[in-house]
Amino acid sequence: MRLADMHIHTTFSPDGKSSMEEQCIKAIEIGIPIICFTDHVDFNSSEINVGRIINKASTNFDVSEYFYEVNRLRRIYNSIQILIGIEFSEPHLFPTEFEDYSSMPFDYILGSIHHCYGSVFPGAKNIEESKAIDEYYNLMLKSIQTCEFQAMAHIDFPRRYFDNWNVSDTIMDEILNAMIKKDIILEVNTSSIMNASDEPLPRYSIIDRYVQLGGRRVVLGSDAHICVKLGNAFSSVVRKLPNTCVIGYFKNRVFYEL
Q1: Structural domain boundaries of the chain?
Q2: pTM score, two decimals?
Q3: Where in this chain does the record put each Polymerase/histidinol phosphatase N-terminal domain (predicted)?
């Protein structure tokens, strides 16, 4: 089946290692016909002046540069479909900024939570694990309930940092039900997969629960910050998804089945 990578970072993100063009070349090389750039939009003060974050601050690049480069690459690499999106962190905390970006012609807006207790999530390792996880999901739930975006990124993101991370079924059901109610799609993020025994973000049991609660549509995202990670483990993950999952992509913020 055709696949789409709906979570890709470039040097327009402060932590991106590959250019948009390098990501396009890699997509063609490995046979991924649809890609979406989702560079970071982050207004948290801990990162506002780091690197090239997409925001309104004059110290960072103009959004027009982002669109210009995508349109340039569309003309050159017309054998693939190049979509333009953003990953907006904690959108509920920055409603004015989120509204500004929502008014722009992005194909796809990916919501995410990266900060907890005032720092990027790894800093939360200094907080009692249960408190950090509760705060993380409180932030996520508020974002889902109050903001309009197409998908929620890596919903068990804390698993990257806590070896024995776990979340109660009650909390996870609340998150999944809120997503389904708002028609916010589940992202299956493969950045956590390094070998055959690894699971995506979220783990398969959470994907199964999403389906049990009535969710069907999913998007795949490698979260690639360097081109060699683009499309990471997609084929193996697709084989393990519930048969009722509908894999797709967004164009002009409309979901299309693959």
Answers
A1: 4-257
A2: 0.91
A3: 4-92
